[in-house]
Amino acid sequence: MDARAVPRAPARGGAGADLEVDRLRGRELYVDHQIQRAGRQILHRETKTEDSDDFLPLPALCLKALRMRRAQKLGDRKAAGELWQDSHGLVFTTKYGTPIEPGNLTRMFGLRARRTGLRVIPLRNTRHTCAALLVALKVHPKVAQRILRHSQIAMTMEVYAEASEEAVRDALGKLSEAMGGSG
């Protein structure tokens, strides 16, 4: 993967989705497919809505992690030899190139969180954590909507409506000052 800015190259990815690192050339990825479990099968499907398909910028931290994963995947592919089965160009696979079972992904996430001393939360809650951090960083709701891949701003605003006590006190303090109050 090359971090230089070049014309957009389709790459697939997203939460629970796949990302074709080999096709990623710029500092963004294109999300248009996802991995889903249906009964006993793991399926490679298009995203739920056309609004979910989009280019997303990748922060340097993500680029570094994807480079590391690419090197690991190449090692896995070499070690697996003829047993390698990756037919969709997935980044996150088993050591044989097959999609990671959702339950195994959840267990690996918890294990890594414990190893680093982080509080273990359900994997599905990481999206809400991201949203809460965007609120704390005062990111504009429309920007957050795009980052969070919400098709409707109403969904994003549900997260933004969850104001912390500190935020409420700060807002009331600003309102009081604007109205000439001194505290």
Structural commentary:
The protein is of the alpha+beta class and 183 residues long. It folds into two domains: 1-120, Intergrase catalytic core (hpI Integrase, Chain A); 123-183, no CATH class. Helix content is 42%, strand content 11%. The protein contains six helices and four strands; from the N terminus they run ββββαααααα. The strands form two sheets. It has a two-stranded antiparallel sheet. It has a two-stranded antiparallel ribbon with strand order 2-3. β2 (33-38) and β3 form a beta hairpin. The longest helix has 21 residues, at 60-80. It comes from Streptomyces cirratus. Residues 1-173 form the Tyr recombinase domain. Pfam families: Phage_integrase. Keywords: DNA recombination. This is Tyr recombinase domain-containing protein.
Short description:
This protein is α+β, with helices and mostly antiparallel strands and 183 residues long. The protein is 42% helix and 11% strand. Keywords: DNA recombination.
**What is the first-to-last residue Cα distance?**
55 Å
How many extended strands?
A: 4
Enter the CATH topology name of the largest domain: hpI Integrase, Chain A
Shape: elongated
CATH class of the largest domain: Mainly Alpha
From the alpha-carbon coordinates, what is the Rg to the nearest angstrom? Answer: 20 Å
Helix content: 40-55%
The CATH superfamily name of the largest domain is Intergrase catalytic core
Low-pLDDT stretches: 1-23
CATH architecture of the largest domain: Orthogonal Bundle
SSE order in H/E notation? Answer: EEEEHHHHHH
**Largest pleated sheet:** 2 strands, antiparallel
Instruction: Kindly report the average pLDDT value.
Output: 78
Strand content: 5-15%
The number of distinct helices, counting runs of at least 4 residues, comes to 6
What structural category do the secondary elements indicate? alpha+beta
Number of domains: 2
Pfam family, one: Phage_integrase
Protein name: Tyr recombinase domain-containing protein
Organism: Streptomyces cirratus
Keywords: DNA recombination
